[in-house]
Structures are given as C-alpha cells and as structure tokens.
Inverse folding.
C-alpha cells in the first residue's frame, strides 16, 4: 500500500471527528501522572485509573457527536476559569500577572485587565458600561 494512500484513508476516517480538546489533553496528562506515580507506588488502582483516562480521552477524540463534546468542553473551560492560562503557558501567565492587574466588574462579572502601577484609577466595563474605582 502506498504511503499517500494510507494517509488519505486516515484523513478520511478522522474527518468529522472531535479531535483533541482541553478535556482530552487534561485526561492524558493526568493519566501520565498516574502512570509515573504507579512506578513508585506499584498499585493496580493507578494503572486502571490511567487506562480509563486514556480510554475516555480516545473516546472524546474520535467522537462524531461534536455538539455534545463542544458543550462538555465549554463547561470544563468555564470550571477552570482563571487557572486555565496558568495550565496552558505558565511563563506567559506569569509575565501577564507582572504587567497587568485583573478585575471583575461588580455589575456583570466580566473580567478585565489594567496596567499595574497606575495608582487609583477609574475603570469602565466594556460589557455593561459600569464605572468603578480600583487600585492598580
């Protein structure tokens, strides 16, 4: 079988599938951590848990029910909230925290950032137009 033909068949099979998302990547990383812990603890519990997480991640990646997987991923991302940038790129999140201070609008709850070191400033929410004062 020619290499191009095999790649084409794999691409056709993967078309319309969910692929990797935040939940599947999180499950794979957690499974890897459980397998590393299992090297030292040698417990069947960690092995079974890691295999189950890998299976769930594969199920999510190859699922054709895109709407359901998208909704689940949105709920998961909402649950992570402000921790999400620290998990994705810790160095960039640390640089962001040094340069900007983050506030939540008291009216609508929208998160916004302002430069650090400007003293007491008046902030206007872009979402609802509410104005409030805060120290940057």
């Amino acid at each position: 079988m020619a290499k191009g033909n095999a790649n084409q068949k794999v691409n056709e099979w993967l078309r319309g599938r969910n692929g990797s998302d935040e939940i599947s990547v999180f499950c794979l990383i957690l499974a890897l951590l459980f397998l590393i812990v299992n090297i030292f603890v040698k417990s069947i519990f960690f092995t079974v848990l890691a295999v189950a997480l890998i299976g769930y991640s594969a199920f999510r990646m190859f699922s054709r029910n895109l709407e359901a997987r998208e909704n689940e991923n949105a709920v998961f991302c909402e649950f992570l909230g402000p921790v999400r940038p620290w998990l994705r790129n810790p160095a960039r999140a640390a640089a962001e925290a040094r340069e900007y201070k983050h506030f939540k609008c008291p009216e609508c709850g929208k998160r916004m950032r302002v430069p650090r070191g400007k003293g007491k400033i008046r902030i206007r929410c872009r979402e609802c137009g509410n104005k409030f004062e805060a120290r940057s």
